[in-house]
Structures are given as structure tokens and as C-alpha cells.
Amino acid sequence: MIQSAPTSQVSQVRRRPMTFARASLYAFVVLALVSWGYILLATDSGAPDVVSAKTWSNAGNFVQQLIGVESSNRPAYLEVDRWLATGRLALNTLAMSVLAIVLTGIAVLPTFLPGARNVSNGDLGGVPSRPGAVLYHAVRLVFTLTRAVPELVWAMVIVFFLSPGILPGAVALAVHNYGVVGRLSAEVVENLEPGPARALRAAGASNLQMLLYSIFPQALPHFLTYLLYRWEVIIRTTVVVGFVSAGGLGREFRLSLSFFHYTDLALLIMWYLILVIGVDLLSAWLRRVVTRGG
Amino acid sequence: MEFLKSLFPPELSPGFLSLALSASWQTLAYAVAGITLAVLVGFPMGVISSGSVSASPRTGFGLAVAARFILAAMRSIHELVWAVLFVAAFGLSSLTVILALALPYGGILGRIYGELLQQVPEGPLRALRASGASPFRVLLYGRLPMALPDMMGYTFYRLECAIRSAAIMSFVGIRGLGYEIQLSLNDLLFDQVWTLLLFMVGMVVLVDLWSTRVRRSLVS
User: Fold this and answer.
1) Helix %, strand %, coil % of chain B (to 5)
2) How confident is the model over B85-143, as pLDDT tens digits?
3) Which CATH architecture has domain B2-219?
4) What is the pTM of this model?
5) Nearest CA in chain B to A41
6) Chain A residue numbers touching B77 (CB-CB < 8 A)
7) CA–CA distance, A53 with B67 (Å, rounded to integer)
């Protein structure tokens, strides 16, 4: 980018970089106004319901039914055997999230290096090759395609092939997260300090040796950190994917809702929160281990 | 194999393309509306959670802890689970779904805004304080202007995720790309599914390119 010498450092810092961003901000505001206009005028927005007393008394009823104050039965979340029965489902859900993250990791590991531009174009001292460039674009395209489609839509498609249970859900989660983690890991490699790789190269290392002994170990902690971050997202999504793939808490969640077993629903939400908080804590601890010891 | 064969060619009749286009617009509108509400919720919560709103450090810290707890609760539940619960409580309408989108997104935006506000360099803040500025002024003229570009960049990044989330809201019965995909899958019209998936990918890629350019223009 060419620019005239700035008269003062301050005005340069404050004004120049905002142009595209500022235009985007205005564009976003316009888009937001149009979107809200569309939703309030052209869809069944439910705006009149916000002020109607009936809506709020219905909502109050729903909360009371979740707690189970009006029912003559004991609420499910006070029954030990209900906790145990749903605990098995919670374990299934946890297993589904672990399977998803392991599948993601296994798929990303061999593909994120060819997906990095500086590996394929020889910036790191390797030899640029035509197959390398083709592979780069192919890998990036797959990252984009898998990432753009949400987990739940993948699950809807995948249940056509795999019998319902934990596996289709885990595969759907893994397909989407393959694109997310793959792209992030490739970008990590692109932002790596090229020094160590070039030094190895200068010392006569082959392409493969350079990748294995320099790039890979440098990128690995970042890769593991991203994978652990995604685990936190995945555990929140397993329930949603379970709605269609019929594995774990998701299926039971849907059934309790359609049979109006609301205290069961409350119990399932409690398990859900336990899983989310547990995985968040575990992932934070593991991330510290990764960045400290490596 | 039959499935893969039936994918090609994608359904490209003008009638179906215009249907896919209007479904894409619906999904985009929900995503944008959800993000704007999330910003409105997340911004004040983020400012409070940065602990810089009160003159007394103890009050500021107490408020920050409370705000962080609420933000964590908001984002611990997936937007579609919120949507299922809200639809059971309030009935199905587009505002219900937008609220369900805005809660977890407000939770994540608020957390990141708070962190960005805390990470600004101390120097200019100290200078402001030395000249007698109140904590509110330090926030308004020191922290906010310094953190704003990063906050905006992150919000644009989240817009891309919101499109995916808006698409899956079809599960509770809201129209859009996910809804059409579900219909076509139920009728085993895989050529239509393929077209709709391409629209989904196209929209996400466009928003991704936009937000990447915004972020690049903000840091340069």
C-alpha cells in the first residue's frame, strides 16, 4: 500500500485504517435495520405477545412445570434412580463428544501441513511443486465445505447412512470440526517463525525431515489447544446433534419435551450443565498442561 | 453410492434457485438480528465484567464477578436448546428464536469484550487518571477507544457463526435454509439438498471474506 508521508503519527494511526472497517460498520447497521424491519413486518414476529399477559403466565406455568410444583408426583430430579438412569445417557453424550474430538484430531493431523500456504509454496525452504499447490487448494476447499455446514445439518444427512446411535452424531460433529480445526491449524503454520525450518533446511534436511522435526513440533501445542477449545463447543452441541442422531441426552430431551415430562426435562438440563461445566474445567486444565509442559 | 449419484446434478431450475435465495435471506436476517441483540446485551455486560465501572475497586470487582457468572450461564447452553425451551415457554415466533440466538452469542461477546477492555495498555489510562479523570471518563476516553477495533473485529467474526446457528433454528420450525434442507431431505430430493448446501457454503464464505477483510483493515 502506497501512501503519502503522514504529517503526524497520531493522525495516521487514527484515521487511515478505519476506512474499510468504517464502511463495513455502516453497511452492517443498514443490514441490521433491514433485517429487523423484515422480521418485525414480514414474519410472524410475536412482537404483540411480548406485552400480552397470557404469554407471561404461560411462561410462568412452564417454569413451574419444570420445577414440578403443581404435579402430585415427586419431581424426577429428586429421585436417585432417575439420576442413575439418565446418568448413563450423560455418559453416552460425553463418549460422543470424546469420539468426535478424537476423530477430528485424527483427520486434521495428516492434512493441516499440506493446507498451509507456506508449506506448499516453499516459503519454509522446501521445493514448491505443482502437486503440492493442487493439494493445498484441495485441502483448503474441503476445510471450507465441511466448516460452512453446521453440525446439525451434517447429522441430518449422515443418519441416512449410519444407524442411529452415538456414531452418526460423533461423525457429524467431527466433519464440521474438521473444517474448523483444520483451518485454524493451517493458519498457525502460516504464522510460524520460518527461522528454525530454514536452518534445518540449510543443514541438509529433506522436506519430510523439516516438516517432522521443525514445523510439526512447533505447531503441535497450538493444534492441541484448539482441539481442546473445540471440545468445549462440542459438548454443548452433542445434545443438539442427539436430537436427530438419537444418541445420548438429546433423544431423551426431545422425548421428555413431547410427552410433557417437564421434571425429567429439568433433570436432563442439570446433567447437561454438569457436563458443560466439567468439560470446561477439564479442558482449561489440559490446556494449561499443554502450554506449560508441551 | 446411489446417494452420491442422486446428488448430481444439483437442482438449478429458476424457481428453485429463487426459493433458495429467499431462504438464504431469511437465514441471514435472523443471524443479523440475533447478533445485534447479542451486541446490545453483551456490550454493557462486557464493560461491567471488565471491572472498570466503579470508583470503588471492591464494588467494581463484585459487579465484575456477578457479570462474568451471568455471561458464563448464558453461553453454557447451546442456542438451539435455548430455542427449544423458549418455544415451550413463549410459543413459536421469530422474536423467540432471535432471543435464543442472542443469549449464547451475548455471553461469548460479553466475555471477549470484557477481556479486550482489560488488555488495553496501561500507559494512556495512567495518564488520564493523573490528569484527574473519573473512572467513567477513563473508560470512555481510554479503554473503550483502544479496545473498540478488536471488539468490532471479533463481532464480525461471530456473524459467520451466527449464520450457521440461524440455519439450524429450522429445527424448532423457523423458515430459512435449514428448513428447506429438512423438507428436501424428508422428500429424498437430494439434488435440492445439494443446491441448498451450496447456498449455505456460499453465504458463509462471503461473510467470512467480509469479516477477514474488516479484521485486516482494523489491524493494519
Assistant:
1) 85, 0, 15
2) 999 999 899 999 999 999 999 999 999 999 999 988 888 888 988 888 888 888 888 88
3) Orthogonal Bundle (1.10)
4) 0.88
5) B94
6) 236, 269, 272-273, 276
7) 29
Note the Cα B40 to chain centre separation in Å.
11
Interface with B, mutate which of A1, A2, A13, A28 (most B CBs under 10 A): A28
| Cis amide prior to B9 (ω within 30 degrees) | yes
The per-residue pLDDT for range B207-217, each reduced to its tens digit, is: 999 998 998 88
All residues of chain B having their beta carbon less than 8 Å from the beta carbon of residue A24 are: 156, 210, 213-214, 217
Q: For chain A, what are the domain ranges?
A: 12-42, 76-292
Per-residue burial over B38-61, b if 16 or more Cβ lie within 10 Å, else e, is bbebbbebbbbbbbbbbeeeeebe
Residue B102 CB neighbours (<10 A): 25
Structure-block grid coordinates of residue B86: 423458549
The cell numbers describing B171, all together, are 429445527
Which listed CATH number (3.30.70.100, 3.40.109.10, 1.10.3720.10, 1.10.246.80) goes with A76-292?
A: 1.10.3720.10
Contacts with B91 from chain A: Cβ below 8 Å: 46, 49, 55, 58
For residue A4, report the phi and psi dihedrals to the nearest 5 degrees: -75, 155
A200 contacts A209 by C-beta, under 8 angstroms = yes
Dihedral sign for Cα atoms in the order B187, B190, B193, B199: negative
